[in-house]
Amino acid sequence: MIIDIITAFPKMFLTPFDESIIKIAKEKNLLKICTHDLRDYSEDKHRKVDDYPYGGGPGMVLKPEPFFRAHKKILVTSHQPPATILLTPQGKPLKQSIVNKLAKEEHLILLCGHYEGVDERVRQELADEEISVGDYVLSGGEIPAMVLVDSITRKLSGVLGSQESLAEESFIEGLLEYPHYTRPAEYKGLNVPDVLLSGNHSEIKKWRKEQSLRRTKEKRPDLINKG
Length: 227
Ligand SMILES: C[S@@+](CC[C@H](N)C(=O)[O-])C[C@H]1O[C@@H](n2cnc3c(N)ncnc32)[C@H](O)[C@@H]1O
Hints:
By secondary structure, this protein is an alpha/beta fold.
């Protein structure tokens, strides 16, 4: 998969994409990420990419032209028509089902807003989808883009060592995952449940299913009611 990210703050992506699962996916050539500095597409001599909002009001708005130019340049080198996603608090709330769907795409372009947001014409003309990472407002679309890239990368075939860990994760069957324990078996007077030490796989499976249901009922009853 190829992911192009258009942003006014490309340096924010330096470290997060060079660690852990994303680093592995890149090394295995399963993922290629290119960040595009919006300022490189400004025709202003000071590389300005924002301006005052028409109609007045606080803050600055990211101008349309640099987004359109950067987007056009990416399309020129793209073999498949990519899906373009605008990160915005006004978008569809990100869910595992959306991640699963996006992980099947070959090429994504992510548009990151900043300041008061992006000129509306960017949304109208360039965005195929609008995605929010939750009902709160962040300073920019960069961290939401990282959230999206990370969640998608886990789903790319061949990235995670064990496909079982994906099959049992939270949200996969509409439930939260069961609790995990590792060594030591007793810590600060707290014991690992006996069943997990028993070696009885069917009992372990049953216990995990019960825990998964119990947790979901306690923490996220909305998930149960939905099903
Ligand atoms: C400060 S926000 C702008 C919020 C905008 N004025 C509004 O009220 O809808 C700046 C940028 O951060 C990004 N952003 C902020 N919160 C987000 C969220 N919950 N999900 C996705 N992107 C978000 C968007 O790209 C947005 O254009």
